[in-house]
Write a structure and sequence with these properties.
This protein is mostly helical and 320 residues long. The chain is 54% helix and 4% strand. Strand 1 and strand 2 form a beta hairpin.
C-alpha cells in the first residue's frame, strides 16, 4: 500500500466538526477529479491513476520530508503491483491503464516500475491540472479557517514551494480512495456519490450558521436542507458521459445509497449515519490532519491561506 502519512492514533475520541470537514474535503476531491478527467481526455480511471503515480514518483515532494525536492532529482518508480494494492484494483486492470498512460507519453515504465517523468510536468494540460489541484487545496484550507476548524501553526523559517501543496492535495485524494473506494462497485460510483454529497451540502457550506449547526457526526441535517441534484448536472460538472452517470445512479438508488427526489437525488440518510462509515470518515479526516501538519513543515501559510494561491480563488464546481 502507498502510505502518504503515518497512521494516526485511532484510539482518540470523536473528531470535532468531522461532518463539516468531510463536506469541505469532498469539494476538494471532486474538483481534483473533474479537472483530472478533463485533462486525461475524459477517462476517470486513468485520471486517478495518473495523479497517484505522479505523487508516488516523488517529483511533487518527497514522502518523508514534507517539502518539495531539489532540482535535478530523478523520479522514483513504483511497481504496478504496489499501485494495484494501494488502489484496490486488479493487477491486469492496472497494467492496462498504465500501458495506455505510457502510450500517451504521461508515464514511463522501466525495470523498477512506473514514473511520471519531470518533462511531463511542463505539458500545458498537466501544468494546468497541477496548478488547479494546488489551488483547490488552498481553497479548502481557507474554508477550514473560515469555519474555525483547527489548522497547524505556520512555520515561517521555510520558504514555501507550491509543489509541496500539490503533493498534499494528491495525498488527500489518495486518502479518500483508500478509505472509501471499497464501499462502491466502481470508482465511477465513488466519484458520483462524492459529487452528489457536495451538491446536497451546498446550503450547509454557504451559511456559517447552518455549517456549524450540523458540523458534528451524529447531527445529520434535515432532508429539507439537502439540495437535490440532477444526474445530468453531476455528469456535466464532472465531465462524465451522461449515459454512464444515469446508469450508475440508477444502480445506487437500487442499492439504497441514493434516494430520488422531485428535483434530483440525495444521499440516503443511512449513508450519513451508518456507524462503520462514520468511523471510516473520522479516520480519513485524521489522516487529512496529518497531511496538513506535514504541509506546515513545508512552509505553507496557514496563518494567511489566501497568500498561497497561484491564481484567484477557484470557484466551486457548478451543478446547474
Amino acid at each position: 500500500m502507498i502510505r502518504s502519512v503515518p497512521a494516526p492514533d485511532r484510539r482518540q475520541g470523536p473528531l470535532p466538526r468531522a461532518s463539516l470537514m468531510v463536506r469541505l474535503i469532498a469539494e476538494l476531491e471532486t474538483t481534483m477529479i473533474a479537472a483530472g478527467i478533463r485533462a486525461l481526455g475524459g477517462d476517470l480511471d486513468r485520471a486517478i491513476i495518473f495523479m497517484v503515480v505522479a505523487r508516488a514518483s516523488e517529483m511533487l515532494s518527497p514522502h518523508g520530508a514534507g517539502h518539495a525536492g531539489g532540482e535535478g532529482r530523478g523520479a522514483k518508480a513504483i511497481s504496478i503491483n504496489a499501485l494495484a494494492a494501494s488502489l484496490g484494483r486488479p493487477f491486469e486492470t492496472m497494467r492496462r491503464h498504465i500501458h495506455a498512460l505510457c502510450a500517451m507519453g504521461l508515464c514511463v515504465r522501466g525495470p523498477a516500475g512506473v514514473t511520471v517523468p519531470e518533462a511531463v510536468h511542463g505539458r500545458p494540460e498537466i501544468q494546468a491540472l497541477f496548478r488547479s489541484n494546488h489551488d483547490a487545496l488552498v481553497r479548502v484550507t481557507e474554508d477550514f479557517a473560515r469555519f474555525g476548524l483547527p489548522l497547524p501553526d505556520t512555520r515561517a523559517h521555510r520558504a514555501y514551494d507550491w509543489h509541496t501543496g500539490l503533493a498534499a492535495a494528491h495525498d488527500v485524494l489518495l486518502t479518500g480512495i483508500e478509505f472509501h473506494a471499497h464501499r462502491h462497485q466502481s470508482w465511477t460510483d465513488m466519484v458520483l456519490a462524492n459529487a452528489i454529497l457536495c451538491a446536497n451540502a451546498r446550503p450547509l457550506v454557504r451559511s456559517r450558521d447552518l455549517a456549524m449547526a450540523y458540523a458534528d457526526d451524529g447531527v445529520p441535517p434535515p432532508e429539507g436542507l439537502c439540495q437535490p441534484v440532477s444526474t445530468g448536472a453531476v455528469a456535466r460538472a464532472l465531465g462524465l458521459p451522461a449515459s454512464t452517470a444515469h446508469r450508475r445512479v440508477a444502480a445506487m438508488i437500487e442499492a439504497g445509497v441514493l434516494v430520488r427526489r422531485a428535483r434530483g437525488v440525495v444521499l440516503a440518510e443511512a449513508i450519513h449515519t451508518d456507524p462503520a462509515r462514520t468511523e471510516e470518515r473520522r479516520t480519513s479526516m485524521l489522516h487529512v490532519r496529518q497531511i496538513l501538519i506535514r504541509l506546515a513543515a513545508g512552509g505553507f501559510r496557514f496563518d494567511a491561506p489566501e497568500a498561497n494561491y497561484l491564481a484567484p480563488r477557484p470557484a466551486l464546481l457548478q451543478f446547474a
